[in-house]
Amino acid sequence: MTISDLSLEALRGVDVSQLHYLELGTLSLEVSGVLPGASLAYETWGTLNADASNAVLVQHALTGSSHAAQGESAQPGWWQELVGPGKAVDTEKYFVVAANILGGCYGSTGPSSIAPDGEPWGSRFPFLTLRDSVQAEARLADALGITRWHAVIGGSMGGARALEWAVSFPERVLHAIVLAACAASTAEQIALAQTQILAIQQDPRYQGGDYYQDDPPLNGLGLARRIAHISYRSESELAARFGRQAQQGELPVSAQRAGQLRLQRYQVESYLDHKAAKLSQIFDPNSYLTLTEALMSHDLGRGRGGLRAALERTSGVRFSLAAVSSDRLYLPSQMAELAAALPKPVQVHQITSEIGHDGFLTETAQIAALIAQSGF
Amino acid sequence: MTISDLSLEALRGVDVSQLHYLELGTLSLEVSGVLPGASLAYETWGTLNADASNAVLVQHALTGSSHAAQGESAQPGWWQELVGPGKAVDTEKYFVVAANILGGCYGSTGPSSIAPDGEPWGSRFPFLTLRDSVQAEARLADALGITRWHAVIGGSMGGARALEWAVSFPERVLHAIVLAACAASTAEQIALAQTQILAIQQDPRYQGGDYYQDDPPLNGLGLARRIAHISYRSESELAARFGRQAQQGELPVSAQRAGQLRLQRYQVESYLDHKAAKLSQIFDPNSYLTLTEALMSHDLGRGRGGLRAALERTSGVRFSLAAVSSDRLYLPSQMAELAAALPKPVQVHQITSEIGHDGFLTETAQIAALIAQSGF
Questions:
Q1: Is position A296 within any domain?
Q2: Which of A161, B73, B199, B298 is 20 to 30 A from A15 via CA?
Q3: In this predicted model, what pLDDT tens digit does every residue of A197-208 receive, in sequence order?
């Protein structure tokens, strides 16, 4: 698979026909100097009203994309049940924007993009923080004529991006609706991220990040995805769905193991294999690294005198916070700590779910109710 | 590093001078035919009494060894504070035996051992179950003249081995003291195990398992160890110890990341790197795979009509069960399920600890109290 194949694969995850592009020129980065020739790819639904007061920014998670909703596209969005005409984020009422994050592989400038010298960025792509992505999105808001978002909303890394928006540009965010996220990546989140990074970097196809003329390190990406996916689900959900069942036609307790890759699997292994294969078809390993490192850097208080001082400036922002009851990656207690540190503490809503972290994607009815409650 | 270097490194983990060996000849395996030329390496402390009624079998965990206690050796054992003269497992009173598990790399026959054809087993080493290791240990008990163990005791995989002893040979076990284990490996435990297996098998040095003439896949082993180690500790312990601190002299939020291995680290990453490096010096990756797959196969009820039917036969065994309060790999609820399935249900003791699963190694005072309570 070459770079062009990978890009095509990647772009299958979004409907290219719906993508808009904004050229940002040279972008100043928080700690990495400048990124020249940057652009953002984004999608929109609905119509901006005359005073530009009905704009909503929907922020995707680590491996998500701008394709939050279907729109004219044939392909359903990742928050299909929440974003659309008459839905919780009503595209007949709101002008909804979703940008592919800087550093990703769905059209915004990332490691697989062509640098000014005509070669893919690869290993030369700069370290990014979530603040860099928010700065880029602020330029998008400027270009669209949006002085203040009616709401910025997201879950997981999308929640961290929404929080960073509220702290970076409090005057530009009326509602911040944040699901399954926290104020700063924790030691455990960093630890799990490191294993995912190493899974990719230890793949011999990684070649230090300059693999675009050859096969990309998809085995490594697949392993990273498996590690991550376990953390996205709950123990009890995996137990209930899979237990110790063997994959159909396979014999995990048999003489056939020796020296082979796992061809005789338990059902939960087949499930993880499927998740790995699926992501490997649509995601660039370098983007996975770049965004994982950006998420590791997530810390609202960094360079701002700590969390409480950073949040002081958000007194004009209306926060709605929700945690998934069974989330073991972004613990409900971490959301409670964030809530308590706000200038006007709010109560954290609980999304009741057995699924774990991924509840921010699956529990759409509860999220719709939360959005309705937010006064949004 | 060649096979001989690796063996030497591995053997540094135990005091070779204390190792005894028992030749088992050809061993019949549960599902993989036979293992010819098998032997067990073991250590003992104390003296077997005249009626052989004071023998205690201490079972090590996944990467542990027979070196549970110091004895004459200069090197402390992994349960140093529990096994020794006057300690909870009193070697002045009991004859204590610890065997290196079949399939390991501390002297018992494993993948790095020389097969009958003069070459290392490597990829040809058979798939083993924990029942196979217990069968081998029963031959050791026979050879030592031990008809019935006064106690079999272990935590984590050592706990699974103790349980399998109680079910395989209920008439040969008086007390079974089981810590931080469960009746059958769960979907999540299997899922985490798969990621660790792939981490090793995707290392280019793995060579299908036949790497003994070359460098072993230690990067893969190190990654497997990191994934495992996160599951051995608790979120709160990692947060309290490391938080988001940078490793001294390193700048994880800096321009220096691009395309490099993680040289600019958070402190928790350095901690995981250390754990990975340490295991890579003393453990054979093929043994890690073999034992991980054996642990995945752990299921007391397999082929025995289910868990309750399997446990029926243990009515003469006195069980003492304990779970670590913060264990997220072997959940206290799983131990409670096991306890409830016993023919005479027992109450599960709680080892109160913030550390997580590794509490079975660190909370020695509570474990000593538990052993004392057991009437052992």
A1: no
A2: A161
A3: 999 999 999 999
